[in-house]
Amino acid sequence: MNWAAFTTAAPELAAITEQRFGAFRHHVLATVRRDGSPRTSGLEADFRGGELWLGMMAGSLKALDLRRDPRFTLQANPGEGTGMGGGDVRVAGRAYEVGEGEARAAYVKEVEPPQPFHLFRTELTEVVRTFVEDDTYLVVQVWRPGAPVRTLRRT
């Protein structure tokens, strides 16, 4: 399920997620290393044309990780201090490299990224938002394909 399908399935959570990622430029991407351990790296996420795109420098270890194992989690930058306006947001899924063709050419024309680079299109498996409500509840919203947003509240 791509970003456009997610926004149709859960429009409120999608809007908040885009706002959180839009608040800061750099975020944290988690990938799976060759030995199965996690790798975290800085990344700029790009919501464009109904897709969540991940662009990376040519030959970067995170790109090589995704080529080998497409699973990822992308954590929105929480920002300065402890305010966490809008909550803590993360997106998980699978990322697939986009080779030469119309989609890549359109992206390059619009974004003008430094060349050479890797471009990955994402398919979402989970979106999670965690925030504090009324200074009382820890609220966790979880979305997965084919299911409505599930909301859990804890005191």
Topology:
Elements: H1 3-9, H2 11-22, E1 27-32, E2 38-43, E3 45-48, E4 51-57, H3 61-68, E5 71-75, E6 88-97, H4 102-111, E7 117-133, E8 137-143, E9 150-154
Antiparallel strand pairs: 1-2, 1-5, 3-4, 4-7, 5-6, 6-7, 7-8, 8-9
Helix pairs in contact: 1-2
Average of per-residue pLDDT values = 94
Rounded to an integer, what's the Rg over CA atoms? 16 Å
How many β strands by DSSP? 9
Low-confidence stretches: none
Q: Give the helix level as a range of percent.
A: 10-25%
Shape verdict:
globular
The helix count comes to: 4
Largest sheet: 9 strands, antiparallel
C-alpha end-to-end distance: 33 Å
Features:
single chain, 155 residues, nine-stranded antiparallel β-sheet, 4 helices, 24% helix
Could you describe the 3D structure shown?
The chain has 4 helices and 9 strands, in the order ααββββαββαβββ. The chain is of the alpha+beta class. Strands 1, 2, 3, 4, 5, 6, 7, 8 and 9 form a 9-stranded antiparallel β-sheet that branches. β1 and β2 (38-43) form a beta hairpin. α1 crosses α2 (11-22). The mean pLDDT is 94.
What is the structure about, briefly put?
The chain is built from four helices and nine strands. It has 155 residues and is of the alpha+beta class. The longest helix is centred in the first third of the chain and has 12 residues, at 11-22.
